[in-house]
Amino acid sequence: MTEFLSTEFKEFQHKLQFFLNENINLSSEEMRSKSLDKGFYSISHQSFIHDGPATPLEMVIARESVASLGILDHSNIIGPDPGALINCSEEIKSTYLDPMLKGEKKASFAFTENDFQNPTTGELNDSSVIINGNKSYVSRAIESDFMLVVLNFKPENSRFVAIVDSNSEGISFKKTFESLDGSNHSEVTFENVKIPEMFLLKNVQAATQNILQERLEMSAISVGLAIFTVNELSRKLLEIHRSGGSLSDREGIRLKYSDLRINTYAARAMLYRTVALLEKSENAINEVSATKVFCTETAFNVVDSAIQLTGGQSLIIGNNLEAIFRKTRSMKLAGGSNEILRLNISKGVFEFDSGIL
Ligand SMILES: Cc1cc2nc3c(=O)[nH]c(=O)nc-3n(C[C@H](O)[C@H](O)[C@H](O)COP(=O)(O)OP(=O)(O)OC[C@H]3O[C@@H](n4cnc5c(N)ncnc54)[C@H](O)[C@@H]3O)c2cc1C
């Protein structure tokens, strides 16, 4: 838990919280430029604590801190994780990774297939890779400079990741739509899209790396949002209610409220235990899945109950809680549906003898 963080991590947490409190009212563009200026945006590239990229713990502290102030869009404050691009070649680093971490290029992640029977494929032709297929739900694809495309590489069908410029010939955005959390996505078609072979990540861990980071990110955001929600609820319940007295005096309300605190406390403890495993470089794929499931569901249940306890005001469009409700709802599907993750956890135990309690 955060009480047991070393001094330098605590100092980083305080610096970031101070920065956020000072600038919370800035527009997203102003916030982005301030965060770049102060070095928070680039921590996944250059840590505040040591040379080189931030560790998973620093990233979790950063994302949880942002969300615990009720900020829903992190992308202007904390830059992206390297994901699949970690440990890449010099060429990829200078063309894609460094510009992405400095906020000069935006990436999207094309993982979900439109038709799982006919997944997106790649094959070698001279020294180029030819990509064909259809991805169904690529977030921020239209504003991205490049995409990380998970493909089945022929002839062995190895699961590799290709780095593809979003304006490459043969790419078309079939359908662009918005989901209830307000984010935009596209169905993307690849028709004989050609990339140089050096931009193919021939590493089966690359896709897993991206997905793991995404799930950890969602867990940290969920915990931060649950903390924000419980704090908002505590404040509201202490106000004088029209029925006389405050709702915080009613036993029925207290019982429900305590459950939200208990579950938020448990989710936060789980998040920090999992990230401690990752700090030790342990294989924690099952634990990250379990954390994503528990934290996203806890945050969703917390905000759902908080809305009920605070009444109809919280459902007015633009209210913090209704926005958090929409965001936490979408995270139960994004990054892999929670049911599929549950199945993966059991598969890890029964078929690969992995996972800890
Ligand atoms: C906000 C948001 C952002 C997203 N961003 C991206 C992105 O950037 N890139 C990307 O590639 N994808 C993205 N996705 C897609 C996301 O990865 C998928 O929605 C998710 O993996 C679930 O797949 P699906 O929607 O096709 O549902 P399906 O796989 O069709 O599942 C439908 C339901 O059936 C259940 N189910 C499926 N199979 C089984 C089974 N074997 N046993 C039991 N239950 C099962 C699921 O749990 C789910 O409840 C995003 C989704 C959302 C909501």
Structure characterization notes:
The protein is α+β, with helices and mostly antiparallel strands. The protein has three domains: 2-79, no CATH class; 104-203, Butyryl-CoA Dehydrogenase, subunit A, domain 2 (Beta Barrel), CATH 2.40.110; 206-352, Butyryl-CoA Dehydrogenase, subunit A, domain 3. 47% of the residues lie in helices and 17% in strands. The protein is built from nine helices and eight strands. The protein has helices at residues 7-23, 28-38, 56-67, 90-101, 205-238, 251-279, 285-310, 320-331, 338-352; strands at residues 107-110, 121-125, 128-139, 146-153, 158-165, 171-178, 184-196, 200-201. Strands 1, 2, 3, 4, 5, 6, 7 and 8 form an eight-stranded mixed sheet that branches. Strand 4 (146-153) and strand 5 form a beta hairpin. Helix 6 runs antiparallel to helix 7. It is globular. The protein starts with 6 loop residues before the first helix and ends in a 5-residue tail after the last helix. The model has no long low-confidence stretch (mean pLDDT 94). The structure holds flavin-adenine dinucleotide (FAD). Flavin-adenine dinucleotide is lined by residues 109-112, 135, 137-139, 179, 181, 183, 185, 330, 333-334, 336-337, 339-340, 343.
